[in-house]
Amino acid sequence: MAVAMNSPAVPVAEAPQRWLTDPILRVENLTMRFGGLTAIDRLSFDVGRGDITALIGPNGAGKTTVFNCVTGFYKPTEGRIALKRGRNIADSVVDQLTASGDQHREHADGSVYLLERMADFKITEKAGVARTFQNIRLFGGMTCLENLLVAQHNTLMRASGFTIAGLFGLPAYTRARKAAMEKAIAWLGYADLLDRADDPAADLSYGAQRRLEIARAMCTGPALLCLDEPAAGLNPRESAELNKLLRLIRDEHDVSLLLIEHDMGVVMEISDHIIVLDYGKKIADGSALDVRNDPRVIAAYLGVDDEEVEAVEEKLDVGDVDAAIEVAHVDGTTDAQGRAS
Ligand SMILES: Nc1ncnc2c1ncn2[C@@H]1O[C@H](COP(=O)(O)OP(=O)(O)OP(=O)(O)O)[C@@H](O)[C@H]1O
C-alpha cells in the first residue's frame, strides 16, 4: 500500500512517555525466522499503558509478524513478550516468572503473562489481548447486535457452568445475559451504530464494518487491543470517525492500543508513540514528532540510498521537513509499497 509521509497531518502535542515509565507490554529480543528468512530480528520495544502505539514500516518490514507473535498466532523463534496487567509490577517479577517455566503469575500489583508461552485463545481470554485483522472478519449474515453478543460467548458459557442450565433460567446466567446485552448496546452506541443494530453486518459500509469489528473486539473486555490496518480503505470521513472511536477507547475505557497502520494521517494524528520497523529491525522509536522528522524513517519509506540519507538529514537540520521529503522523492526510487526497488 502506498504511504504518504507528507500528508497534511498535524502532530499531536508531546505526550508523557508512558512506554518508558509504565509499559503494559514489553517485547524483548523478539526473533522470528521462517526457514532461512529472518522476518523479525532481535526486536525490543515497550507499549505504554493507556497509549495509542503505532507500529509502522514499509511492506514486508515485519509488522504483521510481530502482531502474530503478540497474539499467539505464531510461536516466536526467540524472545520474551511480557504483558503486565497492573501498574508498578517490577521487572524482577517477570524474571521470576520466566525462570519458573510458567505462563502466568498473580502478583499483589496485578497479573503478569508471558505471551510467547501461551496459546492464542488463552491470550485473548486470560491475558486480555484482542485483535482485528487486515481483512474484515465479521459474521456478515448476523446482525450487528448478534456480532457483539457472539463475542461474549465465553462469558456466557462460564455463567452457565458450561451446561444447558442457562436454558432453565439459572440466575447467574440470566444476569450474565443481561450484562452481555447491555455491553453490546453500549458498544453499538460508542461505534455510532445503534440505529443499525438489527441490520446484517454485511449491509454496513466499509467504515462502519471496521468500527463494528473494533466494537466486537472491545466486547471481549481487553486490556490491550491490537488493530491491523484499521484505516485501510477508509475515506477521510470514515477515518475521522475511526480516530474518534480509538481515542474514546484510550481515554474512557482504560485500554491500551497497538496498531499497524500505513495511513500516516491517522498515525500522526492519534499516536502517542510510534515504532518504525524496516527489514525486521527497529529503526526509530519515539513520539509522532520525533519519528516524522527522523531521516532513517523518511529514507526507509521513500527508498533513498544510504548516501542520500545525508541530504535528507541536511534539510531536516534546518527544520525543513517538506524539503527533506522532496529530496527523498527525487532521489529515491520506490515501488507501490513504499519499498526501494
Ligand atoms: N508464514 C510465513 N511464512 C514465510 N514467510 C513469512 C510468513 N509470514 C511472513 N513472512 C515473511 O516475513 C516478512 C515480514 O512479513 P510481514 O507480513 O510481517 O510484513 P508487514 O510489515 O506486515 O508487511 P505488510 O505491510 O505488507 O502487511 C516478509 O518477507 C514475509 O514474506
Question: What is the compact description of this entry?
Answer:
The protein has 341 residues and is of the alpha/beta class. The protein has helices at residues 18-21, 63-70, 91-100, 120-127, 144-150, 153-159, 171-190, 206-218, 236-253, 264-270, 288-292, 295-302, 306-317, 321-331; strands at residues 23-34, 37-48, 52-56, 78-85, 104-107, 110-114, 129-132, 224-228, 256-260, 273-278, 281-286.
Please give a structural write-up.
This protein has 341 residues and is of the alpha/beta class. It folds into three domains: 1-128 and 222-292, 3-Layer(aba) Sandwich (Rossmann fold); 138-220, no CATH class; 304-331, no CATH class. Helix content is 40%, strand content 21%. The chain has 14 helices and eleven strands. Helix 6 (153-159) packs antiparallel against helix 7 (171-190), helix 12 crosses helix 13 (306-317) and helix 13 runs antiparallel to helix 14 (321-331). The model is unreliable at 1-12 and 331-341 (pLDDT under 50). It binds adenosine-5'-triphosphate. Adenosine-5'-triphosphate binds next to strand 2 and helix 2.
Note the main attributes of this structure.
341 residues; alpha/beta; Rossmann fold; 14 helices; globular; disordered N terminus; ATP hydrolysis activity; transport
Layout of helices and strands:
Layout: H1 18-21, E1 23-34, E2 37-48, E3 52-56, H2 63-70, E4 78-85, H3 91-100, E5 104-107, E6 110-114, H4 120-127, E7 129-132, H5 144-150, H6 153-159, H7 171-190, H8 206-218, E8 224-228, H9 236-253, E9 256-260, H10 264-270, E10 273-278, E11 281-286, H11 288-292, H12 295-302, H13 306-317, H14 321-331
Parallel strand pairs: 3-9, 3-10, 7-8, 8-9
Antiparallel strand pairs: 1-2, 1-4, 4-6, 5-6, 10-11
The chain binds adenosine-5'-triphosphate (ATP).
